[in-house]
Amino acid sequence: MERELLEQLNKWHEQDQFRLIIERIQQIPEFERDYELIGQLSRAYNNEGRYREAVQQLLSVHEQGARDPLWQYRLGYAYYHMAMYEQALKAFEMANELLPHDESTIEFLEWTRPKAEKMQQDRQRHQEILLELEHSGRLNNLRAASGSYDPFSFWEQSEYALESYVSPPFDEEMIQTMEQELGYKLPASYIHLMNTQNGGIPAHTVFPTKEATSWAEDHIAITGIMGIARDKSNTLGGEFGSRFMIEDWGYPDLGIVICDCPSAGHDVVMLDYRFCGPEGEPAVVHVDQEDDYEITYLAPNFEAFIRGLVDADTFDLSDEEDED
Predict the structure, then answer these.
(1) Is the C-alpha dihedral spanning 110, 114, 115, 119 positive or negative?
(2) Which residue of 13, 30, 80, 165 is most buried, as measured by CB atoms within 10 A?
(3) Smallest Cα–Cα separation from 194: which of 156, 222, 162, 229?
(4) Model confidence over 140-186: pLDDT tens digits?
């Protein structure tokens, strides 16, 4: 890389002008970008919160980077913010082996180890649930969507829902452009539900959990479900949609933010593609910003999550009975 260009890129980096770095490097044909330039581009992508693109760039020079502690650190950093904690841990451990006692690497190792262990537990739980569903014959039914959603009983009608969530019906082109924008394939059961009403507030808004969160010891609550649209604030592509929550609020780039919660942004429900890939059937998780973006596994797929929602009074009544 020319010295003058490197000096300019480093200057922009010091000024937090990461988009300028990306734009400048993208002007250079891919076949002319050397290892150093790709490293600069991946660093800028990481700083812009575009972690998937950072990983793509880094893996394109895997053979050169494998013994480079900085390359391993940047890869671990990207994986960490995608909640790919197992991969992040592997990269940080290699970075520490190549360059021991680096403070930043050691700090990330301390953060990553418990999260990687939790991810392994969630992966095992997910596989066990899928195996159970397969043996019971319910797996294919859930993936294909049963078609039994009743818009008159499932959705709660209100002026607020109409203003913030409910959008006009969508077509196939909207699905394709939304999937391209988000980088993930939308589940069939979610698309089916949105065909009954494109986003809104369900009548049942509570999902039981086996783990405590900042919301409650045994459940989480949602405010609404985002529709396949961009016109309303609480839609997948809207002002407070999935990419906004990931890029501006710092939620891990593990999939799609599908539901907001009563905390006004401090926790969300997401479709989690970490175990299936961007084209697969995602699990559903709760992500808690109040607890360092702690991830709580909820359901093996979207339909199982929808069918698991219960009325909020379910937990209010049980609390009163306990007090009695």
Answers:
(1) positive
(2) 165
(3) 229
(4) 555 555 556 677 789 998 999 999 999 999 999 999 999 999 999 99
Task: Record the pTM.
Answer: 0.87
Q: Which residue has the tokens 């006009």?
A: 168
Structure tokens at 177: 């452009």
Nearest in space to 282 (alpha carbons), one of 147, 182, 148, 137: 182
N-terminal to C-terminal alpha carbon distance within the chain: 74
Cα–Cα distances (Å) from 153 to 59, 199, 299, in that order, read 48, 14, 22
The answer to whether 69 and 109 are in contact (CB under 8 A) is no
Mean pLDDT of 74-96: 97
Tokens of 315: 């937990």
Position 143 scores a pLDDT of: 56
Beta pairing, strands 201-202 & 267-272: unpaired
Determine the residue type at 208. P
Q: Strand locations in 21-165, DSSP E? A: 155-156
Q: In degrees rounded to 5, what are phi and psi of residue 202?
A: -75, 160
3-class state of residue 267 by DSSP: strand
63 vs 215: which has the higher pLDDT? 63
Structure tokens at 240: 């407070």
Cβ(186)–Cβ(257) below 8 Å: no
Q: Report whether pLDDT(321) > 50.
A: no
CA–CA separation, 213 and 127 (whole Å) = 23
How many whole angstroms separate alpha carbon 35 and alpha carbon 276?
A: 31
Q: Give the pair of three-digit tokens for residue 245.
A: 């929550």
Banded model confidence at residue 104, pLDDT cuts 50, 70, 90? very high
